[in-house]
Amino acid sequence: MVENFSEWFHDILEEANITDSRYPIKGMAIWLPYGFKIRKYMLEKIKELLDKDHDEVLFPLLVPEGELAKEGEHVKGFEEEVYWVTKGGKNDLNEKLALRPTSETAIYPMYALWIRSHIDLPIKYYQVVNTFRYETKHTRPLIRVREITTFKEAHTAHATKEESDEQIEDFIEIYKEFFDSFGLPYMISKRPIWDTFPGADYTMAFDIIMPDGKTLQVGTIHNLGQTFAKTFNITFEDKDGEHKYVYQTCAGVSDRVVASIIGIHGDEKGLRLPPMVSPNQVTIIPILFKKGKEEVMAKCEEIKNDLESAGLRVNIDERDIRPGKKFYDWELKGTPLKLEIGPRDLENNITIAMRRDDGEKVEIALDDNLVDNVKDLLEKYDENLSKTAWDFQAEHVKFTENMDEIKGLIEAGNVVSFNWCGDDECGKKIEEETGYDILGIIDDAEDGAKCILSGDDAKYLTLIAKTY
Ligand code: P5A
């Protein structure tokens, strides 16, 4: 694993052409071409999953102050973080306009207009937009930004509480599949009440343990109950003719997904990208000498075509630099599989394949099975990335029944699970005494288990960690 993760992460973003953070506004960066492609494939996946039964929409960036201020809890949660637009040219605006920190207050007044009857329900919309949060904690590229450039937010409305609860389960399944497709491990927990999304009844969160042992919240799913429905008067006429408030949920992921892919799978040589998001899944490196150059290039083109016809993303590195430098570059950029072909390989009718994860070289015959063999290697590579990452997580969640052990375990790079009585005051005291954050509840406690602090009967198995 990487020694100094923070420095490694910073360097790799620049070296691999992911983002440039030198833009003169803190917390706002530029997506560079290679990073932009990773982002694009990440978004394609979430859209593919959501498009099965959600519709994509696009709302304006600005939210009138009057709407943002309507829901008391919500506005309290965000008031320190909102950027305001107060002027149009030289003129003061009649009403201040907020740059959306998230879009509940932009979307729900419109839901109130659109939803009339039970036949209009459920509504399941999502959008992918930039949102703005004047974060006061230390900003970090992709991890804690002030312009969240890749905010996927879904907002649903339902006729019954049961349906909204089912929607929460659906989102959990969708996010599982989403993170699985990049081989990312995760811990799902129910956030404690004091860390619930402002205005929500409860929040379910996905957290990932980064290589430095700190956890990153990579996705959240909120059951909003009827709070926003009552604030924004979102009602419908039910089958029985009665007017009722809808039940709502929302769920979001961000740039942090890309940060996790980079952080979780990377090693000291650079990125190790899962095929799902890798701009090139196979990189062909021709070994060229004066003699036989055309034949080697022709073969490279032929292989590229064959692999592309099978749906793979392939590039040939034709740059006029030493092959060693090309290998180094593609290792840094995390291409899953490199294929090397020189004149002698051509004579032997083989190519040398090298996986980015274990660096092992295998000969593959240049015959009809080439495509299948390449796909097979990619699949094994993908499985190995995922397994390595899940093993890392399993090794870094440690259970204790002793308050005094929490600090040592967390400082050694772990997340700690413990039994908790579920009392809010007690939970906050655990956070205060240790200096760490309770992530949330992962399960019911076993029979007879006692709370780590109060000694009362424990209700929940809970996680505590150093968080980003
Ligand atoms: C859910 C979508 C919401 O805003 N409203 C619509 C709900 N939830 S949230 O938890 O506040 O944010 C959703 C996810 O966005 C990521 N995130 C961030 N990523 C990068 N930089 C930030 N400053 C930032 N703030 C939040 C988190 O992954 C969070 O779970």
Net shape: globular
Question: Which cofactors or ions or other ligands sit in this model?
Answer: '5'-O-(N-(L-prolyl)-sulfamoyl)adenosine
Number of domains: 3
Strand line-up of the largest beta sheet: 3-7-8-14-11-10-9
* First-to-last CA distance: 19 Å
Mean pLDDT equals 97
Helices and strands: which structural class? alpha+beta
Radius of gyration: 25 Å
Provide the CATH topology of the largest domain.
BirA Bifunctional Protein, domain 2
Describe the structure.
It catalyses: tRNA(Pro) + L-proline + ATP = L-prolyl-tRNA(Pro) + AMP + diphosphate. Homodimer. GO terms for molecular function: ATP binding; proline-tRNA ligase activity. This protein has 468 residues and is α+β, with helices and mostly antiparallel strands. It folds into 3 domains: 5-265, BirA Bifunctional Protein, domain 2 (2-Layer Sandwich); 282-377, 3-Layer(aba) Sandwich (Rossmann fold), CATH 3.40.50.800; 397-465, C-terminal domain of ProRS (Translation Initiation Factor IF3), CATH 3.30.110.30. 35% of the residues lie in helices and 27% in strands. It has 14 helices and 23 strands. The protein starts with a helix and ends with a strand. The model has no long low-confidence stretch (mean pLDDT 97). Bound molecules: '5'-O-(N-(L-prolyl)-sulfamoyl)adenosine. The site of '5'-O-(N-(L-prolyl)-sulfamoyl)adenosine (P5A) has 21 residues, from strand 8, strand 11 and strand 14.
